[in-house]
Design a protein that fits this description.
This protein is an alpha/beta fold. About 25% of the residues lie in helices and about 30% in strands. Strand 9 (about 230) and strand 10 (about 240) form a beta hairpin.
């Protein structure tokens, strides 16, 4: 297999967020001889607002930074308004998932619905061959011409988890110029400076781009309103109160309004969120251990696997890998773990890997906790 072979120059649409990674990716694509056009996606309903600190990637400031970078690279540049599509497919979905007691990943949803659906479809309709982004991941082409998604060469910067929703057709038109080089972020910034890109020292965006101040609970409260309820322990006894179950996620420790310590004196963690009776269940850390899960809406980076298989699984964007056995049964992915994994929440994505190759992604629907009584008896 070879990495990203290009036998001819391509017409490439480079998604430019206004940050350093996407600017260097566009510059590398142009330097490789491709016919590159830059595009900034206007995703904010209020693009006149400026970023708070280093957060955000779709404001007027970011649009101007992207335009200046395109001018330096010497490529055409456009701004496409996808704010309504972004609101419907990403923001509204984010709010609805939290309201239902689940924990979504909006970056993954944006890649699926915006950057490699709405953007790619429009690019192909306009005659482009590929969409280029600043993600850290690699694409390998097999002997039969099909493509595989792999982790970035630098595991510390790998972003393949949030790209696990890409299907074979989308991979055929994707380009990740940063993924196959072992460079630190400082070296990427140094390259940007050598290329004369003013974004070389621009802080990275982080957290959730459409929550500028990073206050997810406040963002949800504005949209869902106050919904007071009880915090209960595993026996069902009330140990505290909350203003909205949507403001919690499984595994959370901080921000619990509990009036007295647990009998064992150990911290409590969120174990379950029930929107039906508006309760949040808390318990000890070991109660977060799960041994199996089911996941829905699987998306495969190639053909769906046949029969049960042994993989490694990543359960959070910045989490490690865990050994897993997975099988697709009637459209539902059933996963078991030989060793318990901790802090897995419905709504999160599970991404399966075969070595460095991304097999596919699915949305966690249910989890099965480790039997603590049996474990203690053993």
């Amino acid at each position: 297999m070879t990495e990203n072979p290009q036998r001819r120059p391509l017409r490439v649409l480079a998604a430019m967020s206004g940050g350093v990674d996407s600017a260097v990716a566009a510059a590398r694509a142009a330097a490789a001889g491709h016919d590159v056009t830059g595009v900034h996606l206007a995703l904010s309903a209020n693009p006149q607002s400026f970023r708070t600190g280093a957060r955000g990637c779709c404001t007027l400031e970011d649009s101007r930074d992207a335009r200046r970078a395109a001018d330096v690279i010497g490529i055409p540049f456009y701004v496409w308004d996808l704010a309504e599509r972004f609101r419907e497919d990403v923001v509204d979905d984010f709010v609805a998932e939290y309201e239902a007691g689940r924990t979504p990943n909006p970056c993954l949803r944006c890649n699926e619905k915006i950057k490699f659906a709405a953007l790619l479809d429009k690019a192909l309709a306009l005659g482009f061959d590929a969409v280029c982004t600043g993600h850290y991941a690699t694409i390998a082409t097999r002997a039969d011409g099909t493509r595989e998604l792999h982790r970035a060469s630098d595991a510390a910067k790998d972003q393949s988890y949030v790209l696990g929703v890409l299907d074979e057709r989308q991979l055929a038109h994707a380009m990740f110029p940063l993924g196959d080089t072992l460079t630190t972020k400082d070296e990427i910034r140094a390259e940007a400076e050598r290329r004369g890109l003013a974004v070389a020292r621009k802080p990275d965006s982080h957290d959730i781009c459409f929550i500028a101040d990073g206050d997810t609970q406040g963002f949800l409260a504005q949209r869902l309103g106050a919904a007071p309820g009880d915090i209960v322990d595993e026996s069902g006894a009330t140990v505290g109160s909350h203003d909205g179950a949507y403001g919690f996620t499984v595994g959370q420790r901080k921000g619990l309004r509990i009036g007295h310590p647990a009998p064992d004196g150990k911290p409590r963690y969120v174990l379950d969120i029930s929107p039906v009776d508006n309760t949040v269940t808390v318990g000890p850390a070991e109660a977060l251990d799960i041994t199996a899960l089911t996941a829905i809406r699987p998306r495969w980076c190639g053909a769906a696997p046949a029969g049960p298989g042994a993989y490694t699984a990543q359960l959070r964007a910045h989490g490690g890998e865990a050994a897993a056995t997975a099988e697709l049964v009637d459209g539902t992915l059933r996963v078991t773990f030989p060793e318990p994994v901790r802090g897995v929440a419905p709504g999160q994505a599970i991404v399966l890997y075969d070595g460095t190759r991304v097999v596919g992604s699915a949305t966690i629907a249910t989890t099965r906790r480790r039997d603590l009584a049996a474990a203690s008896a053993g």
